[in-house]
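Translate sequence into structure tokens.
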Amino acid sequence: MSRILAAILFVVACGAGSASAQDYTLSMSTGLSGAPGDTVLVQCLLDIAPGAAPLSGWSQGICHDPSLVHPLEANSGSTTQTSNNGAPPGFEQVGITETAPGIGVTQGVVISLLGTATLPPGTGYETLTVLYELMGADGDFATLSYCDDAGAPPVETVVVPAGISVTPAQVGTTITIEVIPLVLFFGTADPIAQGQSTDLSVLLTNSSAVYGFQLGVAHDGATLQATAVEAGAALGALNGGAGPDFFVESLDPEGGDGITLGCLFSTVGLSEQLLPGVDQEIARITYQAQPTAPLGDTTVQFTDSLSPGAPAPAVETLISTGEEVETPIQSPGTLTIEVGGAVFIRGDVTGDAVVDIGDPVTLLGFLFGGDSAPPCLDAGDFDNGGGLDIGDAVNILTYLFGGGPSPAAPFPECGIDPEGDSDSVTCETSASGC
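Result follows.
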């Protein structure tokens, strides 16, 4: 600690409570990491044990390896800013020394020059924040430690309770310097009912700029059908808000069930890019669960085996990072299929999975003959109009024998009502033949 600061602290120090080294701990925030060139904010923290003498001030030095990190700025912590009865301290000096000797960050604080304010026992006091730029390479670890030789002249790391200087316990921190790999994965989606639709996000985490991508996504065709693909939210600001210049998808590729997608942010050089980021939505796929989809989880996964159509080759999953393309780390996704309603064929009033003369006869018997209700009323609602009447029976007969229009969906395959049971004509029992 500098002589001037030591003298000030001696004059203003209060003399209440005990003062031992184990009562005071200086530490730094943990779990810090970033890629080369990133910035990381480090918090310097102070703990004062219960029953310990309050502090009238402190000084601290923080040392680092200049080949690994570079302090861009150091600022008074939130606690320091209000330590003087809600006001800034009576004296504070923060400095960054960039040349030897004394490379590091320093802070000296006197809470009140008149001795009218002190810092009482407590934990997590933020004394200082330092913004570091990461200078090291991928795989390096930058250690920050409290020290007594940072600054010119050097500043000792001490706290001042009860009129004396005490060397506190000191806990530094380590910043992990690592390049975040290109990772392609799927978001989470709400469970999807049979016959209904949901959107599934394709997400990208990238530590370098991206200029486009191509990918294939496979799914189980007996469970899902891809009905649409659109650019994700992360691409919305490209080209002045117009989105990517080139975005072409195939919903019915060759080689299996799935989709293929090609996207180039700009067709004029490398004028548009997606900056490094985490969990960035680059595409959104709309899936419809098949009406008879098996219940439970189904997997969607990236694949290199699908082609948008002959003679085009299969689409590999690749990310453009400028002049080069890279294969990202890829993780599959999951959609959960839930019961979506009874399965039937429109017009199949008897529930035997066949539309024939027996169906209009059964419907007329229910409407006018006092017969019991058919197993699925919705099957008799020929046009899905929301009601049952003689017109539905006539329409079935006209379809069967008069060349009339087909019944509304689901027809001719088994399925659920695409509009759900939103009207009074419900279906509680699936057709026995479905």
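Note: The radius of gyration is 35 Å.
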